[in-house]
Amino acid sequence: MLDKPKCMLTVDVEALALRAPAHHVDSLIYGRFNGEEWGIGRMMDIADKHQVKLTFFLDFAETELYGEDIIQAGRYIASRGHDLQIHCHYNLLENQVRNRFPEAAESYYTWYEDEAVSEFLVDYCLEQYRKCTDREPIVFRGGEYRVGKALLKKLKEKKVAADASYNYIRPVEKPMNRQFVFENGLFELPVAVLPEKEGIASKVLNFNEAHLYPVKEADLEPCLKEYEKVFREFYDCYGKNTLAAMVMHSWSFCYEKERFQSSGYMDRPNIYAAEFFDRFLAHFKGKYEFITAAQAVTAEEIHFSKTIDFDAVFSLHEQRESREKFKWIESFIKEKARGRRIIIWGKGWIEGRVMRIWNLSQQLDAAFYISRDADKKRLWRRKPVKTFEEAELSRDKDYVLVIANTRFPEIRDSLHEIGFVEFEDYIDIAQPLPDIENGNEEDKEYPACSICGGNKFVPFNSKRPRYCEGCGSVERNRTIPLLFSENLGTELLSKRILHVSPSRPERIFFEKTGAKNITTLDVRPQVKPDIVADLCDMPQVESESFEIVFANCVLNHVYDDNAALAEVCRVLKGNGLFIVWVMGSGGMCTTIDQEPAAWYGQETMDTYRVGTYRHYGERDFYHLLMRYFAEVHAFEKYDAPSEMSCCWYVCKKKNGAGKDV
């Protein structure tokens, strides 16, 4: 167990032109105003006072804008003994990319999915980094938290050990995860995010979040108390052995709310921000251990107990569908606008989510925004903001993209009143779109089933086509061959295996692979197992008689999972493996089902005590397994036909484990 929970304080060092009117490096990196410094130097002074090391992710792409000034910033950080790592806003390398790759996609949103472009991006950053220090970089963070499979592969090939771009709510929603390992061995250090809870939106552990950032002296103590709450909730949610990666920026002490809202600039020092950071470190350094990104990758106490397929992060159905939808909207608007100005109506939370997935404001070169609070915020994403009356819209010169909640019908009514026709003069993302949302899934060509080779899939207990008509498999069955071939090794199939609650697809898989030493077990005689027994109490099975126990979607349905796990340990030989998949709760905490007989029926419940008792949370299930096993490692496997993923747990027996655990 950890002595103290670990926290990584990261600072994105950026001087993006949109954040200050002039003197960008001095203003946004060093925070030089009126003879004082409020940037990275001030941060390091405060951290040094408390003997804390910070991790600085320097945007090396800005070398294209500021040349040697960026290299000097890197040398300064390294000379102070703090952790220097790589940050990169890909769009700043556009000229370089276009010169080398004339056929590169128009949007930089896809560059990190192209292997050749990704290799250039990584090489460019490495070249600049090596001008700053003799040390090799260890961690990378993409601008806007954007990375893709191709770029992550190139990072590993170039000997970069870890990525720190994973933010499960940005730019597109991804599975909620604590630190993990990608399939190629690249470590991932996710940004700390508190999940949505009881209607309260997700929260990023960001120094400049409104509820965590002081704007006056009276805010200092309340902000500390808020951090107490946030840290407590974070570690309660993910577990004490989770690394909390907090985000700051080089301009974090220069964020003045009114100035930012009116101009988008970060160029007014906030004396309370610097004072608060001092108090923050003094208050928390005794409770948490602050470590650098470099230390996080090598610390034995940081458990990377999960390996995830790239596609289980980047190719899920919902993500692909969202990207395709907004790419289609971009193309559709460009075709329909025919030289007219493009106006965006709406800039609330819906607009924010859209722009994180696909920056339509930039891609469409929007002329301005329309918003009813234009009198308060005259600038948004570097675009002017106007009221509807000020906009003076005309069908002849304007095309409107509506990104607003349907609770505001006055937006649509106003457009209709001035003669705008849907699709011809405006498009509303809240409404069904032509030729995109009416696609026929039956016409889709699916990848082959990994069990039987078939490619016909239909919906099953879901709107998604996930059930193979050939063998009856769903994603939790089809990921079994991948687990053995890509992670565990097919030689394990020659071991003596106890197969609990065997399904038809699993029987087909084991038979096709030539697994001979398999004994099946189920409490229900109608399943026709080799042994009819209750997994929670099975004296029919000798102790230490199997090398592997395999259970797919079983533990959710046993009445006593602790008893079942004790029995699994008893029948496993020394160093034996328990390979298990369970239905998840969708979060970190286990939930108890209120109607356990709903799926299998009351008769099965009464006769065999089989029901749906619980859905496991990732944190809780890991801790439960660690009570019984010496090692637990999870593998998130991707199923291409359903575009879904399944998390398999592989557990090694603890010496002496059994009934007495």
Structural overview:
The mean pLDDT is 92. The chain folds into 3 domains: 309 residues, Glycoside hydrolase/deacetylase (TIM Barrel, Alpha-Beta Barrel), CATH 3.20.20.370; 112 residues, NAD(P)-binding Rossmann-like Domain (Rossmann fold); 189 residues, Rossmann fold (3-Layer(aba) Sandwich), CATH 3.40.50.150. The protein has 22 helices and 31 strands. The protein has 661 residues and is an alpha/beta fold. The strands form 6 sheets. The protein has a 17-stranded mixed β-sheet that branches. A 6-stranded mixed β-sheet has the order 17-18-16-15-19-20, sandwiched between helices. Strand 8 and strand 9 form a beta hairpin. The relative contact order is 0.08.
- The level of helicity is 25-40%
CATH fold-type name of the largest domain:
TIM Barrel
Number of helices: 22
Task: Quote the beta fraction.
Answer: 15-25%
Describe this protein with a few key phrases.
Rossmann fold, 661 residues, 3 domains
Short description:
The protein is α/β, with parallel strands linked by helices and about 650 residues long.
Topology overview:
Elements: E1 6-13, H1 24-30, E2 32-33, E3 36-37, H2 40-49, E4 55-59, H3 63-66, H4 68-79, E5 83-88, H5 94-100, H6 115-129, E6 139-142, H7 149-157, E7 162-163, E8 180-182, E9 187-188, E10 193-194, E11 203-204, H8 220-238, E12 244-249, H9 257-263, H10 271-284, E13 289-291, H11 293-298, E14 306-308, H12 311-314, H13 317-337, E15 341-345, H14 349-357, H15 360-363, E16 368-370, E17 379-380, E18 383-386, H16 388-391, E19 398-402, H17 409-417, E20 426-428, E21 457-459, E22 465-468, H18 475-488, E23 497-500, H19 504-512, E24 518-522, E25 531-532, E26 546-552, H20 561-571, E27 572-581, E28 591-592, H21 602-608, E29 614-615, H22 618-626, E30 629-639, E31 644-653
Parallel strand pairs: 1-4, 1-12, 1-13, 4-5, 5-6, 6-7, 7-9, 8-14, 14-30, 15-16, 15-19, 16-18, 19-20, 23-24, 23-26, 24-25, 26-27
Antiparallel strand pairs: 2-3, 8-9, 10-11, 17-18, 21-22, 27-31, 28-29, 30-31
Helix pairs in contact: 2-10, 6-7
